Amino acid sequence: MSIEADIALFNKRLNDAIFETLDKEVLEAARDAIREQLNSYDWTMSRGGATGSGGLRDRTQIKGETWSEGDLFILQVTDEAEFQDGPLHAGDTLTEAVEQGDSAYKMPGPRPFMHPAEEALGNGIFSSVLMRGLHSRGF
Predict the structure, then answer these.
(1) How far, CA to CA in Å, does 106 sit from each of 66, 91, 100, 103?
(2) 37-52, pLDDT tens digit by residue?
(3) SS3 (DSSP) at 138
(4) E strand or H helix at 73, and its extent?
(5) Closest-CA residue to 33 (of 68, 89, 72, 75)
(6) Of the candidates 36, 55, 35, which has an alpha carbon nearest to the alpha carbon of residue 97?
(7) What is the pLDDT of residues 59-90, one digit of tens each?
(8) What predicted TM-score, i.e. pTM, was given to this entire model?
């Protein structure tokens, strides 16, 4: 095999490892950060949130999508929990209603949790989780 083929194979293995780490370990860290932000509000402490409950803290409702744009790898995380009784307005999401404190939904006020979770991940958690994931995959 030529050096070019060796480098191409290495790059493919590295890219695959990055995608797998983002899809697994980094997404789990994002789920933890989102739940931690939601738990910081008193109103959520007594509510559900077990896996399968369907609420904002339900890990199965926090989804990730990974893709690349050139040399940039992107993990987009969304909380896809739905309203128990459906939205009052077309296009409303539970995440938006909670983060904005929409009074139509009798929210006590804005309780942002997605951006604070993103900031928490950016304070070194993301890097350490990514590096551990790559290390466990041989890099």
Answers:
(1) 34, 18, 11, 5
(2) 988 877 644 455 556 6
(3) coil
(4) strand 72-79
(5) 75
(6) 55
(7) 889 999 999 999 899 999 999 988 877 778 77
(8) 0.84
- The sign of the CA dihedral 52, 58, 61, 63 is negative
Find the DSSP H helices in the chain. Answer: 3-21, 27-39, 42-45, 94-100, 114-120, 126-136
User: Phi, psi at residue 20, to the nearest 5°?
Assistant: -65, -40
Phi and psi torsions of 68, nearest 5°: -125, 150
According to the model, what pLDDT value does residue 24 have? Answer: 96
Record the tokens describing residue 92, joined without a space. 């409303």
- Cα separation, 9 vs 31, whole angstroms: 32
